[in-house]
Amino acid sequence: MAPKLLIFDFDGTLVNSEPGILEAIRHTVTALDLPPEAVESWREMIGIPLERQLSVLLPQHAQHRIPEGVEIYRRYYEDIRPQHSEPFPGILELLASLAGRIPLAIASSKQRESILPVLDQWGYRDLFEPIVSPAEVIHPKPHPDSVERILAYYNLAPAYTVLIGDTEYDMEMARRAGVGAWGVGWGIHPLERLYRAGAERGFQDVQALHQALTELMVA
Fold it and tell me: According to CATH, what is the number of the domain 5-16+85-218?
């Protein structure tokens, strides 16, 4: 059955933002006096909200520093974001082929104010509606709240929707919301991990995803 709605994750799915994220992580780890191994632990949590990441990384006696860590990270990341917001190869062509043919939405753990400038840069601000970030939900990813709000916006049943993402948190969110879970292998988590998290289909490159969507939409 051809989907009537596609929901995309942002970082690691549409945007090759990992280098910039890791740079901001290393900066914040140093500023908070965390051990160097915290960088890799933090990387494993990319895909869930920043506050939750820091709550795991900071020891119990330093939990009060979560707001400070959020501010350090966001201020530094916004300074370097323009240099680390390139679409993955083939993404702009994929979006151009989908524009006007099927509704597209975004469910992301990134703040809306960091997403919109990138879409403006691509000329695609109006392509995605709605864009759901942690500020718009009570329960962020991997809770299904983000997906459920998008389904309510379109008054659409889960069976007609596919979520496309690069982390196990995306797959868990899709599974809990009852929508199709498609994993992409060019982001944070490898496809094997996405399948273990519940991905129904997996794509190693953008071209494979493009072909699959083209075949579904002409079927």
Answer: 3.40.50.1000
